User: Which sequence fits this backbone?
C-alpha cells in the first residue's frame, strides 16, 4: 500500500471519527433483538446510502446489502451483524440502552459503525482499488439464523458472488490497539439440543409407583459430563453444557417428564458426531436403568440453531494481516488460539467463500474487563471504532487494491 494512500486513509478516518462515535452511540442506545432489527437496518442503510452505496433491504428478514462498483476486479464482502441481546444494561453510560431488557452486549454496534466508516473511506479512495465491494448488514447472528436466511433469499445469486469476505468483532481479552486472528479453525461449531426425559408421574408420597423423571434427569446431567472426560480425546476441543432444566409444578407431585436444554461446542465435525451419539446413548441408558419402558425413552432433538466451526483461509488471512500491519504498525496483528464461542459468519465459508476474521482488541489496562454478553460490557468506543474501520479498509484494499 502506497504511503500516500495510507496517509489519506488515516486522515479520512480521523475526520470521520466524531460522527462515527455519535452513530455508534445511536446504535447502542436503540438496540433491537434478533429478527427485529427494523430501525437498525434503516439507519444502517441510510448511512451507507449517504456514502454513495446502492442499498437493497429486506434480504432474509431485515438484512441489507450495499453494492459499490469500481471497475473490473474481485468482489469482496464486508459483513457486520446488527442484532442485540436480551440483556438488561448495567453500564451506567449516558448513551445506555433505552430499551428495557435489550442491549448491544456483544459489540455489534461497533461492527456496524466500522462498516459505515469503511464504506465512506473506500468510496473516497476509489483510485486505490478496483472491483466490487459488498457491504452486508446481517440480522440474527445471535440466534445463528441470519446468514442462512440471507443466503436462502439470494444473497449470493441476486448480487455479485464474493470472491472473499471479511468481518470484525470486539475482543475484550485483547489489548486495545492489537488485532487478533488466525488461519484455520478460529471459532467453535455449536449445536443446541433439547432433551425430553420421560417417566411415569405420581404422588410424591408413593415414588415406588412412579418412574421419576426428575431423578433420571439429574443422573443424566451428571453422566453427560463424562463424555468430555472419558470419551473425547484430550487433544480435541469439546464442551457440553446443560443450561436449563424444567419439570414439575407441585411440591407433592412427580411429573411425567422433564425438559432440558443443552449446548454442545466443537472444533471438528467427527467430534460433533461422537458427542451427539454419546448424548443419545447416555440419556437412553439412564432411562433404562430406572426401568422406564421402551416407548417412553428420552427424546433428543438437535434444534435448528446450528452453526459450523468458523474456518478462515490461510492465504487470505495472511494477505489481509500484512495489510493491517502496514496501517497499524509491525506486530499489531497477533495469532490467537481457537475460540470456544460460535459465529455464523462461518456459514458463508460453507458456501465456498474464503473468509478472514479479525478480533479488534478492546481491553484497557492489564486485565480484561467485562466480557461479551455481560450487562457491563463497555469498550473504549473511539479506539474500537477507529481500529475496526482500519481493519476493514486495509482488508478490502488487500483484496481489491491496485499495485
Assistant:
Amino acid at each position: 500500500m502506497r504511503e500516500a494512500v495510507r496517509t489519506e486513509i488515516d486522515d479520512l478516518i480521523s475526520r470521520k471519527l466524531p460522527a462515527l462515535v455519535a452513530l455508534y452511540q445511536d446504535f447502542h442506545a436503540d438496540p433491537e433483538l434478533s429478527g427485529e432489527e427494523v430501525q437498525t437496518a434503516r439507519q444502517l442503510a441510510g448511512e451507507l446510502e449517504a456514502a454513495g452505496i446502492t442499498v437493497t433491504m429486506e434480504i432474509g428478514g431485515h438484512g441489507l446489502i450495499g453494492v459499490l462498483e469500481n471497475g473490473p476486479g474481485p468482489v469482496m464482502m464486508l459483513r457486520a451483524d446488527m442484532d442485540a441481546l436480551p440483556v438488561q444494561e448495567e453500564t451506567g453510560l449516558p448513551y445506555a440502552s433505552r430499551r428495557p431488557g435489550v442491549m448491544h452486549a456483544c459489540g455489534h454496534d461497533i461492527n456496524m459503525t466500522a462498516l459505515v466508516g469503511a464504506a465512506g473511506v473506500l468510496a473516497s479512495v476509489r483510485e486505490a482499488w478496483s472491483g466490487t465491494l459488498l457491504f452486508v448488514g446481517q440480522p440474527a447472528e445471535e440466534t445463528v439464523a441470519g446468514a442462512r436466511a440471507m443466503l436462502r433469499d439470494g444473497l449470493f445469486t441476486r448480487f455479485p458472488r464474493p470472491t472473499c469476505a471479511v468481518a470484525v468483532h470486539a475482543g475484550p481479552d485483547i489489548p486495545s490497539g492489537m488485532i487478533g486472528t488466525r488461519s484455520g479453525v478460529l471459532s467453535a461449531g455449536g449445536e443446541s439440543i433439547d432433551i425430553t426425559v420421560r417417566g411415569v408421574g405420581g404422588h410424591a408420597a408413593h415414588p415406588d409407583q412412579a418412574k421419576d423423571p426428575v431423578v433420571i434427569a439429574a443422573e443424566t446431567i451428571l453422566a453427560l459430563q463424562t463424555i468430555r472426560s472419558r470419551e473425547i480425546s484430550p487433544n480435541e476441543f469439546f464442551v457440553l453444557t446443560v443450561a436449563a432444566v424444567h419439570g414439575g409444578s407441585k411440591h407433592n407431585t412427580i411429573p411425567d417428564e422433564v425438559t432440558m436444554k443443552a449446548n454442545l461446542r466443537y472444533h471438528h465435525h467427527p467430534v460433533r458426531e461422537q458427542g451427539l451419539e454419546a448424548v443419545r446413548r447416555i440419556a437412553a441408558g439412564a432411562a433404562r436403568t430406572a426401568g422406564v419402558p421402551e416407548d417412553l425413552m428420552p427424546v433428543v432433538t438437535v434444534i435448528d440453531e446450528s452453526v459450523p466451526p468458523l474456518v478462515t483461509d490461510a492465504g487470505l488471512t495472511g494477505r489481509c494481516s500484512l495489510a493491517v500491519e502496514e496501517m497499524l504498525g509491525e506486530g499489531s496483528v497477533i495469532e490467537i488460539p481457537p475460540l470456544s464461542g460460535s459465529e455464523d459468519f462461518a456459514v458463508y465459508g460453507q458456501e465456498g467463500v474464503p473468509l478472514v476474521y479479525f478480533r479488534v482488541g478492546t481491553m484497557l489496562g492489564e486485565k480484561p474487563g467485562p466480557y461479551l454478553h455481560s450487562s457491563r460490557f463497555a469498550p473504549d468506543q473511539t479506539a474500537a471504532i477507529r481500529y475496526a474501520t482500519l481493519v476493514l479498509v486495509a482488508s478490502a484494499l488487500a483484496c481489491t487494491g491496485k499495485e
The chain has two domains: 3-187+309-400, 189-302. The longest strand covers residues 164-175. The two ends are 8 Å apart (CA to CA).
